[in-house]
Amino acid sequence: MKRKIIKLFILFIPIQKWRHLLRNKYLKTTMIEFKKDKMLLENILSGEYNTISDTSMRNMQDIFESKCILPKKHLGNYINLLFKNTSVFSADYTHSANYIVLRGSGSWSPQPEMANWAVKNHIPIIRSEDGFLRSADTWCNTVVDEKYTNGISFTFSNDVHYFDATKSSLMERLINDKSLTFSSKELARARKCIDFIVKNHLTKYNHQPIYSPKIGRNGVQKILVIDQSYGDFSISKGLANNNTFTTMLETAIKENPQADIIIKTHPDALAKGTERASGYYSGYKAHDNIYTFTAPINPISLLQYCDKVYVCTTQFGFEALMCNKEVHTFGMPFYAGWGLTKDALICERRTNKRTLEEIFYIAYILYSYYVNPDTRKQCEIEEAMDYLLKLRQEYFEEFKIRKDI
Predict the structure, then answer these.
(1) Whose CB has fewer CB within 10 Å in the chain, the N or C terminal residue?
(2) Among 156, 74, 68, CA closest to 369
(3) pLDDT for position 129
(4) Secondary structure string (H, E, C) spanning 94-137
(5) Is 303 in contact with 326 (CB distance < 8 Å)?
């Protein structure tokens, strides 16, 4: 309720300059709280706590039917459409429950208290993260209708998040499992979904304009280097650090001396005055054959314009694979180490080889869960993609966003 009041207050401030100043201050305060909660929660979860035994994609439906406790903050989000029997956590919580569900990679109060309560009462913990086809707009846009910012896809794990390469995650174990094979029908379904995503420019956040950019010199190979928000949780968990981005850019320049090097900023950069507003290349000045690209653009649009892609841990790299691009990784994202990418790092746990369709089926179909807010029911990926297309069209029409497809 407090967040909604603040959003409405900011939205109706008549002078845009003051509106942005207040929004930036609100986001900066929120991110400080987020970072504090994230560190506290990870400290709790790095210790010994009771987890689900052998949670897999085959029994999550049973968990959805069980009694689960969710953070109050997320009761208005679409994740509740998956769960049949939920209750709100409070500091004096006394009810019984089968599972505690924590949302996000760090996350918001009262999740550290929830984790402590779960440990004390021997309640299994489920960790949830946004899926790969999330919403129309980003979660941090506080001045648009929540239908545009609420997520419709979710992932779940009983241990670490899928982007955490410091340990063996559920996602990694599924991809690495040589006994997990797919029928020709399942692989055809994956290919059809990939083609649909690329054709319709669907991605995690779908608010950015769709057009073919013009960057650098004509007739020259384009090398895309993807920046990320400073302090992004997936970077440290993806076996990377600040120096990784320096190495990545230097390598891209050295390996492609005749090409145009395009540095793309990350769309999750929140606002001026917040830590995550800066990326690792924020202060980099364009010169010679190196160009910085800060304009909003749909990731698929930009990927289709380029020839090679250099990434640390971002989802951008997997979308580049879907666009049939050569991908170089410098961290250890979930899609690296399986024979599809050129990797600067080696994860000795990852011994299996996978096709693009196999990894897509595991990540987007087996590991991810979707809801349709129109029907208020769980749905398959195809229905979720249709919903996102419709929602994006509404968003583009309302805010007059460019779309050249």
Answers:
(1) N
(2) 156
(3) 92
(4) CCCCCEEEEECCCCCCCHHHHHHHHHHHCCCEEEEEECCCCECC
(5) no
The one-letter amino acid at 313: T
Asked if the model's pLDDT at residue 174 lies above 80, the reply is yes
Q: Which amino acid, one-letter code, is at 189?
A: R
- Supply the DSSP symbol for 286: P
Widest distance between CA atoms in the chain: 67
Lowest mean pLDDT among 139-143, 238-242, 292-296, 371-375: 139-143
- Contact between residue 126 and residue 55 where contact means Cβ atoms under 8 Å apart: yes
pLDDT digits over 117-156, tens only? 888 888 888 889 999 999 999 888 889 999 999 999 999 9
220-264 confidence digits (pLDDT tens): 999 999 999 888 889 999 999 999 999 999 999 999 999 999 999
What's the CATH fold of domain 184-386? Rossmann fold (3.40.50)
Q: What CA–CA distance (Å, rounded) separates 314 from 323?
A: 15
Q: Which of 330, 286, 290, 324 is nearest to 307 (CA)?
A: 324
pLDDT in tens, 188-201: 999 999 999 999 99
Contact between residue 336 and residue 343 where contact means Cβ atoms under 8 Å apart: yes
- Structural contact between residues 313 and 233, judged by C-beta atoms closer than 8 angstroms: no
Give the residue extent of every domain in the chain.
2-130, 184-386
Neighbours of 138 (CB within 10 A): 19
Which residues does residue 229 pair with via DSSP β-bridges, in sequence order?
A: 279
* Sheet hosting strand 67-70, strand order edge to edge: 85-88, 67-70, 99-103, 125-130, 153-157, 368-372, 377-379
Q: What's this model's pTM, rounded to 2 decimal places?
A: 0.88
Task: Say how far apart CA 49 and CA 399 lie, in whole Å.
Answer: 46
